């Protein structure tokens, strides 16, 4: 029996912990042997769970890079602006890399990561988790089998969800472009990657985009509102109230995301959540934050051969990230509303529904993208164990290509023009 793949977790926050769960379910396939994170609380949690030696836990990724190589792979789950340096340094040390999306926050840095991994002969998987979702895989399989003929148009909607947007993109880690990245990269790189994937080998040749930050601005603050929800006299009339999003949930015994990520030094309970709302970023009035990323954005694309695609990201929705997709082909239409996948055949004028197996073992959540998270780690660990990069769906080259499309779409928005992809002119 082959020995388990040894992994070092760099960034033991929400994502680092989720991916590490694979070692609890399959200790024969993966072992956590090192941890780097400046937060003692986060570090200790993983150290205790996986019995990692003190000398193999660090408060910064640089310490891992300075040591002799002592594992097969690293999971890089640090904040967006801290992806490129550890990825390049650890690829050079010969570690295979699981890297959170976005790869990096500039096109130059994404290119450098890709080139370094290729030159160092290491495998890279970028956490475009949706590519590993069984339904998304089924969609690709149906397209490739010719079930809807030639693809003519893709329409794809990402409803972010009103309180998810307030949590992550108004109060939280991805609210400010200078601190993380622009919304199309931070949130929707998954979606442009899917569109790119579904378009097959076709290159996107033209892109345009519009979008802005709406509503979550100082001028929309209701009269009488305070700067913190716990002190606010008009909070009861506010759908974005932190009391409703966090405190009411923990009072009902709900401690998963988003409640789970707001207490950075302790487990969430009524006391720690109240404390976090009194002093921390998540208790701020949504009209008084330093947020600047878009709340709604559209992207239009034309691919080689005339295939068109249209993407919408919007904050103000009931659904949380439950994407809606329609792919129109010459012989049929494929539609997926986040619950049901079906193909309408133009010849027979009948619909066929498709179901996929969404079961995964252990503690990977069945909600959100938990199933896809499991399959992503499964693919990466299998690829490292067998030395077969073909098991990876979101490797360096295809991710670089779809990230380039994201940078080009954002350039089109900022410069109010159609960008001819691969060039810099109108
Ligand atoms: N694939 C997805 O669908 C998905 C979903 C959410 C987040 N993300 C991405 O995952 C990354 C991490 O997000 P998260 O939600 O886990 O954030 P997080 O804040 O919970 O975790 C990041 C961790 O990195 C640690 N860190 C900071 N500096 C470090 C350093 N110098 N060395 C080592 N560790 C360091 C922090 O202390 C923190 O624990 C981000 O890039 C984010 O955009 C991806």
TrEMBL record:
Segments passing through the bilayer: none
Gene Ontology molecular-function annotations: nucleotide binding
Domain GFO/IDH/MocA-like oxidoreductase: 136-211
Annotated ranges, domain Gfo/Idh/MocA-like oxidoreductase N-terminal: 6-127
UniProt-listed InterPro entries: Gfo/Idh/MocA-like_OxRdtase_N, Gfo/Idh/MocA_Oxidoreductases, GFO_IDH_MocA-like_dom, NAD(P)-bd_dom_sf
Domain of life: Eukaryota
UniProt family annotation: Belongs to the Gfo/Idh/MocA family.
Name the UniProt record assigns to this protein: Gfo/Idh/MocA-like oxidoreductase N-terminal domain-containing protein
